[in-house]
Amino acid sequence: QSQTKKTETGKKISPYLFGLFFEDINYAADGGLYAELIQNRSFEYSPTDRTDWHSLSFWEYTTPRYSYGSLNVETSTPVHPNNPHYAVLNIEHVGEAGVGVKNHGFENIVIKQGDKYSFSMFARQLSSSPIAVTISLQTPKGKVVAESKINVNTKDWNKYTASLTASASNDSTSLVILATTKGKIALDVVSLFPEKTFLNRQNGLRADLAQLLADMKPSFIRFPGGCLTHGDGLGNMYRWKNTVGPIEQRVEQKNIWGYHQTAGLGYYEYFQFCEDIGAKPLPVLPAAVSCQNSGGTWRIGGTGQKALPMDEMQEYIQEVLDLIEWANGPATSTWGAKRAAAGHPQPFNLEFVGIGNEDKITPEFEARFKMIYDAVRAKHPEITIIGTSGPFSDGEDFDKGWTVASNSNVPMIDEHYYKEPKWFLSNLNRYDAYDRKKPGVYLGEYASWGNKLYNAIAEAAYMTGLERNGDIVRMASYAPLLAKKNHTQWNTDMIFFDNSKISLTPNYHVQKMFTTNQGDYYYDNVIAQNVKDTTLAASCVKDSKTGDIILKFVNNSNVAKSMKVNLSTFKNYMSSAAQIVLSGNANAENTLEHPQNIVPVYSTVNVNKVFDYPAPAMSLTVIRIKIL
Ligand code: AHR
């Protein structure tokens, strides 16, 4: 329930209002934020992911001059039962350079001159003598730009590693593994990471993308979805236990968005990243039902079952409880020990858990949600549980979702909506009338359809409304976050990227201007608002940690307009304040080729006790005032 303490001038608001939503959609994880450069590293791709994929997809059998042999996929003695397929190379004649395989990565591997790359693979010799292997990175014309050698000399699976240093920069290399001794070897979990990952973490994140997220200073990160959470059938529901532990033991599976998840970026990595950037982790677990509880048929033709059978519910509930022990339990507890063994003896301080994502509010859902909710609440009253309002922003089903959640006394409810910019502008007051006695809101997914400046400014106006209602709206996250060129299933996203370039949308800049300028107290009498002019919106908050006063002004019209500011509530403020302005042509957008069309401009301005702020046409301005 809301903790609001109304005073003469304002109210306390949530200190966690603006965070991030991360889902492995649009190649956001594998091929995206997860820094692994090899695609299908464990030979686990299959027609279940996509009808034309198989164990050797993205691999090429290579027999440079005069060599011959064969390449097969086997399953009889895997590295781990969770990782059943592996490749077997039979080298019959070594020829000039050996017999081997090439991997083209996620549409080639980009390397930088002088940078080091960490190679590893599991291998075993299947013939009597050890097998010498050359690992290299090669250009499309076969020029070797990095090389290292390994001797596979174990009869059992063993992890072999090598470091490769790039002698030149190249945007389209492949990894080439050539066995240069006659005989037979098995290979699996063939991996290549840049040594420079975000904070140089092992099994880490792509440094440039992760840094952009860190720069946003989000107060929380929601993961792993979105629809990825519940999958499109019970077969690919996201089960967190499958995503922790050594990567060769994780369970790979079909991604609901039509590709494959290695789970290399799993719960351990999500929690570590949250800790690294000071964001609260917000895992969302399935409510034991699959995609909108409909068998997954509504969106991408899934054919899975609807809901976990009741006789599996106790086990499932235990899985949810185990997550809390894994995250917060002492290193001596069963699951805390697993976290410690992975390298994190200290708890991760989990405070929020979401249960369900956009689930249709059916009797199946209701029964399972309640069972999970009651069990978590009974064992972990310290955890804030977030329920779901279902897939809609209003209407009968939405009301039903709210009723179910309110009846259970759920502390927060996750609402989702994607709408035209016009909708956002005509709903700036959506939360003003929300009953403060009812559960709080987590606006877990929202965006206006588009990545033009006009969309971003409409969202900015809406976000000032979220701040004004920050006593009842306790968290909010734009969605989706990341989208890779040529692999985008959802067209409106916050950050677009390819293997080397990044384009920050105007929506990203708006989000960042809010996430880096959050407050925990809202003042309602500092900026005069003409409620009849919906082209203008504004907010004023205080960040108690720094004492700073933060003003935000939004003008979504095509002409400059003034807003009146009165700072007399504040004593001893510095007249020189930091200012950020994002403005431009309503239809302007950034692209990978032209990423700087719309960027915020940083400056300082002088503020007086009373002044008119001239908000440029189509703009968001943030002014941050220091208190002495
Ligand atoms: O953000 C993209 C998708 O939109 C999410 O997976 C889902 O929850 C929503 O329908």
TrEMBL record:
One Pfam family per UniProt: Alpha-L-AF_C
Keyword Signal: yes
SMART domains found in the cross-reference section: Alpha-L-AF_C (SM00813)
Catalytic activity, EC: 3.2.1.55
Gene3D superfamilies: Galactose-binding domain-like, Glycosidases, Golgi alpha-mannosidase II
Domain Alpha-L-arabinofuranosidase C-terminal: 444-619
UniProt entry keywords in alphabetical sequence: Hydrolase, Signal
Catalysed reaction equations from the record: Hydrolysis of terminal non-reducing alpha-L-arabinofuranoside residues in alpha-L-arabinosides
PANTHER family: ALPHA-L-ARABINOFURANOSIDASE 1, SECRETED ARABINOSIDASE
Family recorded in the similarity comment: Belongs to the glycosyl hydrolase 51 family.
Name by which UniProt lists this protein: non-reducing end alpha-L-arabinofuranosidase
Native source organism of the sequence: Arcicella aquatica
